[in-house]
Amino acid sequence: MNSEKLSWTVGKRPSGWWVSVLIFLFSLLTFHYTKAQLTGTWIGVHSEWDSDFVCPLPAYLRLNADSTYQLGLVEGTTPPIRSTWAVQGNRVRLDTIHYAPGLVQVEGNLLRIGTFYPMVFRRFQTIPLDSIAVYQQLSGRVWQSDSLTIALFADGRVSLENRTAKNRTVHFWRVARLDASLFLVIRGSPHERDGNYKPLWQLTSVSPTAIQAIGWNGRNVSTETFRLGRSLTSADSCRSSGFQPCDNCFSWQWYYTQLNAERQQYVKEVMQKHYHPIDLPGQSGLLRARFVVNCQGERGLFDIAGFDTDYCPFVFDKCITEQVQDICRRHVDFEGLSYYVSGQTERRPEDKGVSLTFRLKDGCITDVLP
Prior knowledge:
By secondary structure, the chain is mainly β.
């Protein structure tokens, strides 16, 4: 082996190239950001709830050079939080929260704060646009990117359609101003206008045939081009393509509701009343029905899975699975499973995930498990 290619040997120091690499890596571990590097306005991208699940962050963080900061919603519907911040050695302080080294990171034009459910911001650049002209150009038209179709209705409703999956959801839209820049803010559900934001889009240019905007496209922050599709007419309706959770950041695992003994007994009684036993030898094991009940009591996103008596995956007869799904959709009352937004004076129902497990013996339901 060529000794020049061997960077270490016992009793020898690494070659000059490796020394440079080690110094660089060490600098990454000990580097702390200067105040000047963090000063400025940052636009919220999302908060990371899991490795593959993020929630839009419709906020801005303005770190001023005079050690004050503002944290508020881009659309300005509530007063911003105001306090002070500082860089203290290799730590960053926001108000009374002290972030240890590594918990505040700048990666290019992105700012990450925290490690558990970290918040991700992007550096903001002001791009002046005329709000009246932009609104008139957007309203009443359909705009398409390579992956998304946005139909902006003049009454403030908007439909978003994934061009690959072909699923369409309904929300509300408005144009909001931050400094001299304009943002397309999409929020709410078919049942409620407020809250539940979709990713923000900062408009950078608008013409009669195309708009460009900076935002999260599902993979990264980029500038996307939306081309004019057509003008909307009175014959166009703003409807979702199917079941839609009320929460735009819904994840089944975060909203799971488990049956208590009383509700378990209730489901047993419903199944006894509506399930028609089918004599099918061998159709034995566990059948799990998972689905979502939204804030309006609508049910959808069904996932039916079966397991045999040895707890191995098993496909039950459609006569069984279709019956169970229909009963869960039409006959089981989930009002008692509702839970509400904490801290609200008027309790508002939210979406919930439900999981029901049935034990079967030769096509007959013998028990309901929690």
